[in-house]
Structures are given as structure tokens and as C-alpha cells.
Amino acid sequence: MLAGIELVIALLAVFVAATVMGTVGFGFGLVAAPVILLFLEPQSGVIVVNGVITILTASVVVRTRQHLELKPVWLMCAGGAAAVPIGVFLLANADAGALRIAIGVIILVLGFITLFNIQLPMVKSAATGGVVGFLTSLSITTLSIGGPLVAIYVVAQQWPPQKIRTTLAFYFVLSYVIGFVFYAWAGLLHRETLVNIGILIPAMVAGLALASVLARRINQRIFRYAVAAVVISGSVLLLSRELLLR
Q1: Which of 198, 142, 235 is nearest to 7 (CA)?
Q2: What's the Cα-to-Cα distance from 173 to each of 57, 105, 157, rounded to whole Å?
Q3: Which DSSP category does 72 fall into?
Q4: Residue 38: which domain range?
């Protein structure tokens, strides 16, 4: 269970991650996962990060539910729901070291996508929603990351900002809630994991409060660079730790 300096660092990571997600609509796992996984085993760390994200995104859906339209995103949500059992199976059976390395590498790649604002032309078609939903849910259920892929997809649809934010939140809530059902079924939910989620919630709330201020004032280009720097640094730290211990 998180305690002492590990808890302080984890709280700071969650605060920054919540600020990022509250401002741009995704990125919590990218920022928080590398830090949390320094202190917890991958299975527990992924579930802790996903637990906090579930609460965060549920609050966004409740506050912005008037902007939610289910018809344009049903295919994406269906793909996401289908991927959850596979993701949980992979998480339950993966080698801890290999999982950390996979998480670190994927975060590093997504960090560079964020830094250079790389566009993926194939996601502009609404028909790719099911594939994007499946791949994103598979990634977040297994690794607690993958938000940028679905974010790139919804942005490519050229929806209004509030619709994008609400759509992302709804998709994440659906995937995470189904994920927790399967986590429990697979025997991955433990008392310590639930306690860790609970003690990190205050940092999440504080991060969201700061995000509500930043979203109206911050230069998005500078913010993207700052997020990318945090993400890349965290992934390098996670990879270095794992490779040095081998």
C-alpha cells in the first residue's frame, strides 16, 4: 500500500495528471502510470490508475451530460466493450517486468505524438470508430493508457469542444466500469488496491479544480509541450528502472 514518500510522490503525480486530463480531456494514465508503477506491481498499479480515472471521468459526464450524443459514438463504445475481457486476461497473465516495459515504451511513443501533434489520417472516417474503440479499451484495460488514440479520433470528427470532452468521458467511464467488473471476476481487486484509490482521490479533486482555471487561460501549445515533457520523462524513468533491475 502507498505510504510515506511514495504516497507523497503518487499524490503529486495524480494532481498533475488530473490537471492535464481536466484541461485537455485525456492524458491521466500517461502522466500518472509511470510514477504509480514505480511503487506498485503492474496489476495493482494499472487498477489504481484506472480507478481514479473512473471517478474523474464520471464526474465529467455528470457535469456535461447535456452535450452527450450516443448515436455518433455507439460503434466506438461497442468496440471498447468487446476489448475489455481480452485486456483483463492479458493484465492477469502478463509478466510484471514485460508489462512495465510495454507500458513505458507505449507511453514514450504517445508522448512524442503529443509533443509533435502528429495527426493520423485514417481516423477521420467515422467507420473506424469500432477499431479505435477496441484498441483504446484494450490498451487502457491492460496498461491504463491509450487515451490519445481515441482523442485523435474524436477530434478528427470536428465536433464542438464540449461534445468531444463529454464523448471521451462517457467512453472512458463505460470501458472502466466494465473493466472493473472483469477485474473483480479475475480476482485482481484487493482491499489494498481500493484503499490506494481512495487516498489518491483528494489529489484528483485538487487537480480538477486547477484545470478549471487553466482551461480558460493557458496557451494550448505551451501546455502540450509541458505535458509531453512530463510524459516522456516519466516513461524514460520507468524504462530505466526496469532495465537496470534486469
Answers
A1: 198
A2: 6, 25, 20
A3: G
A4: 4-245
Q: Please give the tally of structural domains in the chain.
A: 1
Grid cell locating 231: 510524459
The residue type of 93 is: N
Q: Which residue has the cell 452527450?
A: 68
Distance CA 106, CA 59 (A): 27
Q: What pLDDT digit, counting tens, does each position of 151-166 carry?
A: 767 766 777 767 777 8
H helices of the chain, in order, are: 4-24, 28-39, 42-64, 74-93, 96-116, 129-143, 147-156, 161-185, 191-217, 220-245
- The number of beta carbons lying within 10 Å of the beta carbon of residue 25 is 24
pLDDT at position 135, please? 81
What are 60-75's pLDDT values in tens digits?
A: 888 878 878 777 778 8
Q: Which residue reads 491509450 in cell numbers?
A: 146
Q: How many whole angstroms separate alpha carbon 168 and alpha carbon 172? A: 6
Torsions phi, psi of 70, nearest 5?
Answer: -80, -30
Q: How far apart are CA 12 and CA 137, in angstroms?
A: 26
Whole-number pLDDT of residue 120: 56
Angle at 64 between CA 58 and CA 66, to 5 degrees: 125
